[in-house]
Amino acid sequence: MDNDEKVDKLIFNLTKNIEGKIYLFFDEIQHVTNWEVSINEYRIDMDSDIYVTGSYSNLIKGVNRSILSGSYIRINMYPFSYKELLTYFSDKKKSALTHDDEIKIFNNYLNYGGFPGLLAYDYPDEKITYLTDIYNSIMLKDVIDIGKIFSANSIAIS
After folding, report:
1. pTM over 0.90
2. Closest CA to 91 of 83, 21, 124, 99
3. Buried b / exposed e across 47-77, counting CB within 10 Å, b at 16+?
């Protein structure tokens, strides 16, 4: 969906018979024209909690911020720290980690970082592909597109 009228029609049709609080989740909504007007409308017209995710640079590009002024909280999401990864793996194992476990986790953290999506991959080539895709996405969508540094076809990292 690329415009607010289509999104509004869908949201109001899907929520018309719901009683109580409505939770709305939108990912990459910056691709919808006038998205901030729609979000503000849902906030006013519905008993709702609204969650919007996407590239921060794209979300603020061209947005009439006065429409959402005072009605949002920005939450920055960061990769896991090493300490958070230790907690994750300890909870997953349901017991304390051994020294060897910690060394393995540390080496993986040094080599690949702490992106939560990496936890789905076991093999180094899968992890490298995942990280390369993130890098390309950031370069092509955020840096090149927003900054107009190069044409989108001129760079791809592999």
Report:
1. no
2. 83
3. ebebebeebeebbeeeeeeeeeeeeeeeeee
